[in-house]
Amino acid sequence: MKVVRAKTAGFCFGVKRAVDTVYEQVDSFDGPIFTYGPIIHNEEVVKDLEQKGVTVIRTEEELNSITEGTVIIRSHGVEKRICDMLEMKGIRVVDATCPFVKKIHNIVQQESAEGKLILIIGDPSHPEVQGIRGWAGENARVIQNADDIENTDFGKKNEICVVSQTTFNYNKFKDLVEIIKKKSYDVSVLNTICNATKERQTEAESIAKSVDAMIVIGDKHSSNTQKLFEICREACNNTYYIQTLDDLDLNQLGSVETVGITAGASTPNNIIEEVQNNVRIIF
What we know:
- The protein contains eleven helices and twelve strands.
- A four-stranded parallel β-sheet has the order 1-12-10-11, with helices on both faces.
- By secondary structure, it is of the alpha/beta class.
- It has helices spanning about 15-30, 45-50, 60-65, 80-90, 100-115, 125-135, 145-150, 170-185, 195-210, 225-235, 270-280, and strands at about 1-5, 35, 55, 70-75, 90-95, 115-120, 140-145, 160-165, 185-190, 215, 240, 260-265.
């Protein structure tokens, strides 16, 4: 009987940096502290920060009404116009945008200024993608699947720059790039999926292929955890997506010999360990 825990499970660099930033502000700043949107996609972390006095701002209207305190920009980043608005208001701002996401902002802003059509491969409803879109100017499109490519007019003379949401499925990214290249002759592709995402997905798939059951831990709103679940489910039929131990029916694992565990980039280590320890108990 064996439990295999992924070495790459849990906080990535950008998430840890963002969470640490908020806790540091709590300890060092006396005034009110706000995050524009949840700092990361994990309800447990957000609840803990709220108990320490951090307020999550959910809308742009709420953000615009703030007149004092500190606004922390979350790990996913925000549109350029939000940054401009905060600068004009003179509010104290702490930018906790993941450096890998910030790099994409700089790329699309520069490439768009050079007249290129920007194609962002990712989920159009995800805050990271919305933030990237907001730095890419008017000549930009978000591509999530092959149908989106077919429905997009690239223009015969357009130079195209392709970037990706940092947590997008790497294999799907490659497939979509191949379709895009068949539609245009002048395409520059910048693979902006972060290395941590690729490593996490590759390891999760490898473990899922070798075990009887697979547990994927992460918030229901976490894009990278959703991608992990999809990858693991393709490799192992008995794959379970949970946020905490409370979501797991341990009886379902009673007849299996090996269990794999992985977790999204926004999942705290204590939640992973709690699941791992309790799974071991049943063997």
